[in-house]
Amino acid sequence: MVADEVRKLAEQSAAAADKISSLIRQVQAQTEKAVETMHAGRDITEKSAQSVSAAGGAFRAIAQHVNSLTEKVSQTNSAISEAHKGSDKIVEAVINIDAASSRLAMETETVSAATEEQGAAIEEVATASRQLAEMAGKLQQAIAEFKLR
Question: For the whole prediction, is pTM greater than 0.85?
């Protein structure tokens, strides 16, 4: 009976040892899966960090382009402002030229009227000169007749 008990205990010990071995293999398998999952998680984390770094670089490049564009827009606005000032000066010059042209036209009309008056006066002087010449001719004839008589 003691031998039976020892045999039963030995069988129970063997069964327990097999069960423990099975549990150890399961724990080892689960541990290997956990290690693999951790490695995969690490790889994903590294790739994510690289992606974040690349996105940060892209955002920095975008910020630089926006700053450059802002500077160019500012320069363009300055150029437009200068051009506007120049066009204001041109408009002012055109207005001054128009006023000068108007004055010149009035003065030209005055000169033209004076020229017409001078022309009429010259015509009157010419007519008076012709009449005077005729009178001088008649006077010379009269003087010649007076000497002859």
Answer: no
